[in-house]
Amino acid sequence: MPRLPADTAVLPADDHYIGSPLLGAAQIQPAAESRIFADHHTPELNFSGFTSASYEQHLAFTNTDCHPPNRNDTIDLPDIFQYAPPKTDVDAAGALVALYKTHIISLIDCVRYCKEKQFFRLFTTIQGTMTVPVHKLFVHADIAPWIRECDWLMYQKMIQCVSNLTLQVVPPVVVKFLDTVQRSLHAHITQTFHGVPPHVLEAKLEPATLFACLLFRMLRVNQAAHAAANVLESQELRDLMWNDWVRLVNPKRIMESELPNCGYEQVYKILTHDMRFLLEPISPDPFSEAGTHYENSADNHSINIMIDTSVDRIAAFLSSLSIRFQHASARRIIDCVSLIGTAVMREMVIGTAQSYNSWLITKVFVDEMSMWLASLGGFLEHQPPKHHDSV
């Protein structure tokens, strides 16, 4: 796995951006929805307050690599006059756009360079820089959707800046910064903007909560990836994992017990040919594969042979599933991946597999990575609604 210098908090340059080589164009399958809770520690399911207890989350395995993060990209905010109330003062609107654009650019730079104190301070100071007409426009109900879309665009830029760290060795100072942001962002915005009308606070909290959840999932994937890499870098363990797989995993039994009646041909190919290649290079006993589903598993693999490590291959493989199962929703893909992995682990337990711990660690990484990819794709897919008439 690529390693970053341990003494720097600056994120990697653009030429170190790592994209998935298997993703095709745009979104292939329909997005699915889940919900993200605003507060994970309150004992009640839905706490009472001025803002929502949870927000809709779109899941979609989209091509997040079509447009790698460009550090020189300009920020093009939505047209404020498509949201503004009638007879809005043009100068006040222009001042709000300029001020909010500067605010967004500064926050993105704080994430890029891991400036924790400045990041949280910027949320506190923005209202103090507004004149009375600008602040009056800022808190207007018609402007709340504009604030939401501006913030969503900002967080999309932020997550693009950090998402290429997912499978890297991240310096502790960067991990600490990202963890602090994901834990504190919702509460900090709630406290900082407690004096504004609820519609403004809600507009700011929704994209912030989804962004914080993405950071949480990214950090989990990073930890799981390192644990999986420690296992999968061992030739001896990979050989043992494959031997146990051949001995204990009957793909037809797995499919009939876990999957709906569709896509069996692709799944069979995954469980036989592709699973072997994800563990390559291996040196299996050729006699152990004779007469099994895996006799010809060394042929006709579907994973990019140019990807060096098993961890990177697994990530690319998961990214490609939406292309191979074009009519399945993102949620269905995630669920089926988890169900198959759980069924395999049952076989490993019943068959007393020596590689049980190695497969369990690998399954944790696979489950975390699939959820991260779908969450990231759905978040980056969001675009402002189309407006045909300006005010």
Write the layout of secondary structure elements.
Elements (H helix, E strand, L loop, with lengths): L31 E6 L16 E6 L30 H23 L3 H10 L6 H7 L5 H20 L8 H21 L5 H35 L2 H14 L2 H8 L5 H16 L6 H4 L20 H15 L5 H21 L5 H26 L10
Antiparallel strand pairs: 1-2
Summarize the structure.
The chain is mostly helical and 391 residues long. It contains 13 helices and 2 strands.
Structure characterization notes:
This protein is mainly α. The chain is built from 13 helices and 2 strands, in the order E-E-H-H-H-H-H-H-H-H-H-H-H-H-H. It has helices spanning 90-112, 116-125, 132-138, 144-163, 172-192, 198-232, 235-248, 251-258, 264-279, 286-289, 310-324, 330-350, 356-381; strands spanning 32-37, 54-59. A two-stranded antiparallel sheet has the order 1-2. Helix 1 packs parallel to helix 4 and helix 8 crosses helix 12 (330-350). The longest helix is centred in the middle third of the chain and has 35 residues, at 198-232. It is elongated and about 80 Å long. It starts with 31 loop residues before the first strand and ends in a 10-residue tail after the last helix.
